[in-house]
Amino acid sequence: NNAAGAVSTQDGAAFVDLDAVPDDGLSFADGLKFLLSDKAESLRNLLESEVDNIVDIVTRQIIRQGVNEAVIALSPPRPPSLPIFGDIFPATPKLDEVPLPILLPPTNGNTASVGMLTLKEFSN
User: Is residue 33 within 8 Å of residue 26, measured between CB atoms?
Assistant: First the structure.
C-alpha cells in the first residue's frame, strides 16, 4: 500500500488498496524499529493522543464490566415474602445506586478530592 511505499501501477494509472498488505511491505519489527527511532518523533506525537484515547476507552470498558459483575455478585437476595402478609420487607437498595465516597484525581492543579458518586456515575 502507499503508506508502506508500494503502489500498484497498470497502464499509467495508479491504484492503492489500503486494506491489502504488500508482499514487500514493512514487517512488524521494522515498523516498530522505525516508530521508536528519532526519525518518527512527529509520528509519535500524532499517535500519543490516539493511544491516550484507546487506553481511556478500554479502561472504562473494563471498569464497567467489572462493576456490573461486582454489583451482581454483591447484591443481597430479596427476602422471601410471607404467604399471608405478602411483601412486608422493603426492597433492598441496588448496590450500583448507593452513593459511595470515591477518591477523584486532581484536576487543573487542584488537589485530589473525595466525591460521593454511585458506581454507575463513577464508571460512566
Answer: no
**Start-to-end CA span in the chain (Å):** 39
Taking the C-alpha atoms of residue 122 and residue 12, their distance in angstroms, rounded to an integer, is 58
- Does the pLDDT at position 53 exceed 50? yes
Q: Which three cell numbers stand for residue 76?
A: 443481597
Q: Which uninterrupted H or E stretch holds 109? A: none
Q: Would you tell me how many other CB atoms lie within 10 Å of the CB of residue 96? A: 19
Q: Is the pTM of this model over 0.70?
A: no
Residue 20, helix vs strand vs coil: coil
Cell numbers representing residue 37 in the block: 527511532
